[in-house]
């Protein structure tokens, strides 16, 4: 190799950025995942305006998003900076989807097809924007190796503006856990008690996690997936929940969070669905394990994009751990709020453990010792041994605009997994949109499943209203009224 070639190689090596361990995991065949996000509007799409916003955004400037994936002759993976050809990333479809009943259904049909077909081309940066002009929506595809849902949401929000103030970026809902508030007098005793709980629950849940990775599997029901199910055709439907309804349910039990309510709704909704679809009676307390991704950044929820790029602790990319969240089947004729109480107890215990940090470090250790292939196989194994995936992201409080298009709805999902059901929820302007991606040969009627989940929240709300009316106000509430 001559001196010029050596210098050129050195310059390339200085530019190339090695993939993170999580990035390497997500390009393996068993865990190759693409994130899909849909934005709908009631206005005709102005293609040139959308292209102009994308061309001026971080989408074409951020090092990770403007780099191609390179795998050298030794099998090492790198990001290499390249020029963005916008015409290759913006895909315009004018033809209507004939099977669709409305524009939202068309978007779901389109994303369901993308979930099991049409992988992203690797000779360009791993993202695309599909514009469905006949159905007034845009579908964004981004490979999970580029970043997690928090990274992608933070990036996208930087391109949006408030609908009522086009010069201002949207506000995001703050994530506050009321259980973290403690008075100074309680501090020492609370710290000691919490330390004991952390040690105990971490041991219990880490053992459960390892067991699920290696051999323990959920009992078989009509919604269980398994190895190879990720290749089956998909259906995608939307369950919609009003945030105000969730807040009413939240008030019925002290120190309850929206996440507690969400998981109570999932437990209740799945029980309702299995009551009507299971060919044989199920025993009370049957476990259906959910796999949840937990943000490990110091600040919960949406992140400031500039800070994410500058602060390593906030970190652009994939910074999440995994939690096993068991839901239990109980006859749907039981008290709706019992599902919430069980969910709250379980999630309180999970928050008192270091399970998510363990899963993150455990994955990193396996990657370092055994490589991405074996880490991917272990991740695939835990997907096969559990029943469903659940993710929940907090979106904008108010309506936003993208390229001067008022956004009517915002939804997200991912490419298919070995699970029979994956649930991805994002809140937007007072409504939570849960995308239910199902293997249609397992869950033949996902619309019924969505209805069961929506009805579960409404029944819990009715029970919560009755409970609140009958509940005597506490001394603190009486003092507040005075």
Q: What does this entry show, briefly?
A:
This protein is an alpha+beta fold and 482 residues long. The protein has helices at residues 3-15, 21-25, 47-55, 86-89, 103-114, 149-157, 187-214, 243-251, 258-277, 305-310, 336-351, 355-370, 372-384, 446-470, 475-481, and strands at residues 17-18, 34-40, 67-71, 77-81, 90-93, 127-132, 137-143, 160-162, 234-242, 286-295, 320-329, 388-393, 400-402, 405-406, 409-414, 421-428, 431-439.
Question: What does this protein structure show overall?
Answer:
InterPro entries: CAT-like_dom_sf (IPR023213), O-acyltransferase_WSD1-like (IPR045034), O-acyltransferase_WSD1_C (IPR009721), O-acyltransferase_WSD1_N (IPR004255). It is a single-pass membrane protein. With 482 residues, the chain is of the alpha+beta class. It contains 15 helices and 17 strands. It folds into two domains: 147 residues, Chloramphenicol acetyltransferase-like domain (Chloramphenicol Acetyltransferase, 2-Layer Sandwich); 260 residues, Nonribosomal peptide synthetase, condensation domain (Chloramphenicol Acetyltransferase), CATH 3.30.559.30. The strands form four sheets. It has a six-stranded mixed sheet, sandwiched between helices. The chain has a five-stranded mixed sheet with strand order 5-6-7-2-15. α8 crosses α14, α9 packs across α11 and α12 packs across α13. The longest helix has 28 residues. It is globular. About 2% of the residues have low confidence.
């Amino acid at each position: 190799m001559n001196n010029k070639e050596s210098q050129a190689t050195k310059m390339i090596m200085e530019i190339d950025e090695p993939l993170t361990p999580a990035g390497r995991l997500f390009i393996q065949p068993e865990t190759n995942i693409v994130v899909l996000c849909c934005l709908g509007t009631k206005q005709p799409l102005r293609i040139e305006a959308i292209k102009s916003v994308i061309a001026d955004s971080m989408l074409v400037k951020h090092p990770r998003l403007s780099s191609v994936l390179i795998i050298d002759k030794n099998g090492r993976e790198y990001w290499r900076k390249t020029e963005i050809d916008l015409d290759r990333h913006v895909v315009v479809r004018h033809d209507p989807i004939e099977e669709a009943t409305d524009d939202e259904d068309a978007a779901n049909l389109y994303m369901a097809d993308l979930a099991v077909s049409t992988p992203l081309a690797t000779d360009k940066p791993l993202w695309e924007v599909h514009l469905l002009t006949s159905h007034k929506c845009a579908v964004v595809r981004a490979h999970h190796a580029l970043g997690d849902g928090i990274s992608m949401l933070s990036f996208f929000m930087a391109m949006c503006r408030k609908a009522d103030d086009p010069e201002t970026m949207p506000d995001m809902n703050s994530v506050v856990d009321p259980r973290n508030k403690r008075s100074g007098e309680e501090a020492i005793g609370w710290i000691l008690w919490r330390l004991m709980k952390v040690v105990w629950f971490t041991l219990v849940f880490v053992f459960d996690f390892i067991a699920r990775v290696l051999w323990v599997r959920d009992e078989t029901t009509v919604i269980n997936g398994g190895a190879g199910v990720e290749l089956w055709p998909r259906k995608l439907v939307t369950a919609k929940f009003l945030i105000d309804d969730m807040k009413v349910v939240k008030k019925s039990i002290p120190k309850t969070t929206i996440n507690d309510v969400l998981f109570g709704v999932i437990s209740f909704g799945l029980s309702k669905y299995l009551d009507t679809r299971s060919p044989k009676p199920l025993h009370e307390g049957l476990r259906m394990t959910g796999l949840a991704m937990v943000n490990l950044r110091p600040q919960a929820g949406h992140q400031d994009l500039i800070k994410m790029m500058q602060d390593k602790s906030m970190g652009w990319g994939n910074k999440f751990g995994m939690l096993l969240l068991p839901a239990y089947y109980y006859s749907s004729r039981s008290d709706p709020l019992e599902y919430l109480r069980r969910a709250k107890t379980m999630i309180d215990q999970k928050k008192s453990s270091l399970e998510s940090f363990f899963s993150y470090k455990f994955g990193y250790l396996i990657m370092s010792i055994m490589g991405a292939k074996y880490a991917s196989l272990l991740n695939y194994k835990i997907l096969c041994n559990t029943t469903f995936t659940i993710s929940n992201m907090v979106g904008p409080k108010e309506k936003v605009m993208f390229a001067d298009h008022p956004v009517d709805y915002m939804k997200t999902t991912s490419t298919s997994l070995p699970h029979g059901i994956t649930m991805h929820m994002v809140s937007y302007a007072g409504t939570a949109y849960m995308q239910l991606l199902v293997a249609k040969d397992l869950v033949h009627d996902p619309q019924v499943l969505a209805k069961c989940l929506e009805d579960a929240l409404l029944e819990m709300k009715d029970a919560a209203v009755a409970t609140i009316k009958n509940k005597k106000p506490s001394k603190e509430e009486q003092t507040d009224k005075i």
